[in-house]
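Per-residue structure
===
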Amino acid sequence: MTGTVTWAGLDVHARSIHAAVVDARSGELVRRHFGGETEAVVAWLAQLPGPLRVCYEAGPTGYGLARACAAAGLCCEVIAPSKTPRASGDRIKSDRKDAELLVRLLMAGSLTPVRVPAPELEAVRDLVRVRAGLRDDLSRERQRTSKMLLRYGRVYPGKSCWTRAHRLWLADQRWPYPAQELAWCDHLAAVDGLAARRAAIDEQLSLLMHADFLWPTVARLRCFRGVDSLTALALHVEVGDWARFVRPAQLSAWLGLVPTLSQSGESLRRGGITKTGSRHARRLLVESAWHYARPPRLGVTLDRRQAGQPAHILQIAWRAQCRLHRLSTRLRGAGKPANVVTVAVARELACFLWAAAVAA
C-alpha cells in the first residue's frame, strides 16, 4: 500500500495475541502482547500512526478480528498460512517470532491474502458444512450396521440397500443375546437419527438458497448436469465471489484440481493434484464429474432446473455436456485410470461453472 506509515503483524490465538509493529519512517520495531480480547487489539491499533496496514494468518479463530478492524476503518488482511514463506533451516518457533516474520513479509509484499467472506455467506457455509459432516457420519454408521450383519452371515435379499424396504427388513432382524439386541438397536437409532437430522438441514437449506444474495448464482449453477440445488448452493458458498478469479484456470488451481509440478534444469515431473483450497467443493465437483461419462442429453429433471434461465447460460451448460463427455471418452479410450479421468473432467467442469457464474 503506497504511503503506509505503520505495518503490523499479529499472531492470533484463542487466549493470546502477539503483535509486532514497524514504523516505516524510523524502522523501529515495537512488540505487544494481549489476551484474546479483540477490542483491546483494535483499540491499540487505531492509536498507531496511519496509514496502517495489518495482517494475521488464517486459522481456527476465524475472521472476527479482520471484521472488527474493518469496522474501525483499519486495513487488515487475513493471510494464507500455506503460502507464507518460511526458512527451512529455522528450528526455533515462537509466537513473537511469528508476528515479527509476518510484519516483515507484509512490508516486502511476500504474503498472499485470502478473501474474508460476508457474514451472511459464512453463516450459510457453516450450515452446508454441518450437512457435509452429517453425510459422512451417516455413511460411517451405515457401514457399521452393514458390517454387523455381515459378521453373522445376514444378507439382504433385495437389490438396493437403504431403501424403505431395506429399512423394514432391518427392523425385523432379531438376535439371540440381549447384548446383540442392544447393539443392533443402537446402530439403527444412530442411522435413523442422522438421517432425520440431515433431512431437517436439507429442508432449511432449500429455503435459505432462495435468498437474494444466493439464488441468482445458485440458479445458474444448477443448470449443469450433475449439479443439483444443494450441490450448487454448497459450491457457491465455498467459492464465494466467483469474479475474484480473473481466469477459470485460477479457480481450478484454488480448488486444488491442478497437478503438482517439480521442475529443475532439464528435469520436469508432474504428480497428483495439489488438493489445496476447499476440500468440500473439490469433492462435490468430482462427484458431479461422474455424470459426464454418459452421452449428452437433456432429461426431464435437468430441463426443469434450467427453466427460466437465460439462453447464454443454457448454451454454456450444453457445451459443458458435449465437451466433458468427449474428454471423458477420449481419456478412457487412451487407457487412463477412471479416477484420473474424473478429476480431469472435474477440473474443466469448474471452469464452465465459473463461466456461467460470472456471465453478464
